[in-house]
Structures are given as C-alpha cells and as structure tokens.
Amino acid sequence: MPNSPPQQHLVLPSPLSLILLLLLLGQCLFTKTNATNTAQKFREAPKYYNSPSCPSIPISSSTMDLCSDQAVHVAMTLDATYLRGSMAAILSVLQHSSCPENVFFHFITSSSNSISNSKNLTHIISNSFPYLKFRVYPFDDSAVLGLISTSIRAALDCALNYARNYLADLIPPCVSRIVYLDSDLVLVDDIAKLAATPLGNQAVLAAPEYCNANFTSYFTPTFWSNPTLSLTFAGRSACYFNTGVMVIDLERWRSGDYTTKIVEWMELQKRMRIYELGSLPPFLLVFAGNIAPVDHRWNQHGLGGDNFRGLCRDLHPGPVSLLHWSGKGKPWARLDGNRPCPLDALWAPYDLLQTQFALES
C-alpha cells in the first residue's frame, strides 16, 4: 500500500448497514444450505491418460505428486452452491490436457460447513474422478468475515469468495506456482500452456488485462477525491483484470506478504467506502499495472451477463481457450430453467450431473 492516507475518524457502521450485512451473509449461507440439501448425483468421468511426451512424476507417495515441479497445480474453491460448475470445470481441464495425470488440484472449502458436508463434497469428487490427484484445505471464514463489505450482489459477499487472498497460506510451501480458476468456467485448451505463462523477473501474478474497461468505475468518488488515495496508481499503467483466472507465483507472494497488503485495503474499506464490487478491487489496488500479461483467449469472461440481470452475451472477438460465465447468469441455472443463452450450449457437454431420467434408468 502507498503512503498511509490522512488519519480518518473511525466511523462505526450504522445499524442499517449491519442489518444489511447480516442479511447478505445469511442469504449466502441459506443458498449453500439449500444446495447441500438438494441431492446432486454426478456421473463418473472417463479416465484421461498422459501422452507419451509427458514428464514422469513419481506416484509412490502423494507428497511427491503434491510437491513435484513437473505437475500443473490448480486451485479452486469448492462448495455445494457451485459444485455443479466445479465438476464441469475439472472435467474440462482433464479432457483438454496433454498430461492430465500430471494435474494436481487444490480445493479450498469453507470451515463453517459441517464436517459431514465437507466429507460429502470430497466423496463426490472422488466418485466422479477416482483417479484425480487432489487435496482439500479448510478455509477459516472468521479470518475474513469481519472484513467483508456489502457489495452489489450477495454471491460476491460469501467468505469463500475471498479465499484466493489466502492461497499462499493454505497451500504447502513446496508448491511454488499455481493456476487459480473460478468454478463457472470451462477450458477448451491445454492448461499447461496457461500454467507456463512467463512472469518475468518481478510479477507476482499473470492474468488477461482489459485496458478498454472504465477503470475509475471500480472505485468510489471518495477514493478518487482523496489526495493520497488517488495517487495509488501513480506511475502504474493500471488496467482492469478478472481474478477468476490467474497464474500466481506463490513464492513471490509469500516473500512480498501480499495477503497483508490486500487485507490492509479491506480494513480501510471498512472505515471509508472506497469501492463497491466484492473481492476484486483489493486485487486491483495491489496488483493493477504490475501483472504479467496473458492472452485474452484465456478468459473469455462476462458470459454470465452483468451483476443485476445476467443477460446473454456474445464472445469477445478472437480465439478462445477458456469460457468464463462471470456475472449473475450461470449456465446450469439457465439450462435448468429452460431459458439458456446460446453460449450455454458450449458448457453443457461438460455437465456431469445425472438427470432424473438417467437415475431411474
């Protein structure tokens, strides 16, 4: 964070804002509970094998797999609400990987879920992907609940949405580089290409940048009118980037203590409203203008529409390696509601959910 802003008087949240925060967090938990209570059964995915050119990774010990530099490490959050999307994302990664047996998944789950729910999620993953190499890490929601500010959509206020801030603390130190993926996407290209993105000598993370977006709109007039805060991006060619697809150097993250830098901005946000949109702005404040570039083909984002209506959208011009349904509209919900968008048909082949007809058969 740049020079500390002028001393601010501590502003306690009003009773109305406290009530709103509790309602939003309650809605998040209610959604999770409903999704958990709904019995979802998934098919077993095919087993995918390495091509002959793939490097060999010792398989005698799970620790050797976990710490291998030859593995492609992928981090995702895992919860009942987005489980169907996560299953499709996992399948797409494996199906299009040239070395699927060398992909290791790191799943972050909420510690506020009951042990039985966490075990159930792990059981579902193991049943559908019996050969998958993965580890599950509980995320302590209490670490972030007091820092979450209400945003424009309740789903953005769930604590697990902030777990990406703490990946370097959750994942073992032997893992030096990881690809972070949201649960509402599918890959149609080899993830090893994305994982091999060069970070140069200093960049901590890489992601596609969108410099045509109105960057100032991600922060409030309070932020831009503050003489100190408005200098945050001075000397940086800051552009918007989506945090749903990132390549992260965990060693550089740890050595630079970037979790603390993000948390400092979240603490300031609790004292004075400087942004509106969930977990994204702190990443922009810390990293925008200092990230390594990734081709836009690796995040064709916004397919879920905006955060209010979730209307259908077209693909951005150019080639596609990853389709991302960021926004309010999710393909599984629109397909189930018989109101799909045209591009939702590209997600459907990766859907492992067993239909009632298939279960009865």
From TrEMBL:
SUPFAM superfamilies: Nucleotide-diphospho-sugar transferases (SSF53448). It comes from the Eukaryota. It is a single-pass type II membrane protein. It is found in: Endomembrane system. It holds the Pfam family Glyco_transf_8. Its main location: membrane. Its EC number is 2.4.1.-. One of its GO terms (molecular function) is glycosyltransferase activity. Pathway: Glycan metabolism; pectin biosynthesis. The keyword Transmembrane applies. GO terms for cellular component: Golgi apparatus. Keywords: Glycoprotein, Glycosyltransferase, Membrane, Signal, Signal-anchor, Transferase, Transmembrane, Transmembrane helix. InterPro entries: Glyco_trans_8 (IPR002495), Glycosyltrans_8_dom-fam (IPR050748), Nucleotide-diphossugar_trans (IPR029044). Residues 1-35 form the signal peptide. Belongs to the glycosyltransferase 8 family. This is Hexosyltransferase. It comes from Lithocarpus litseifolius.
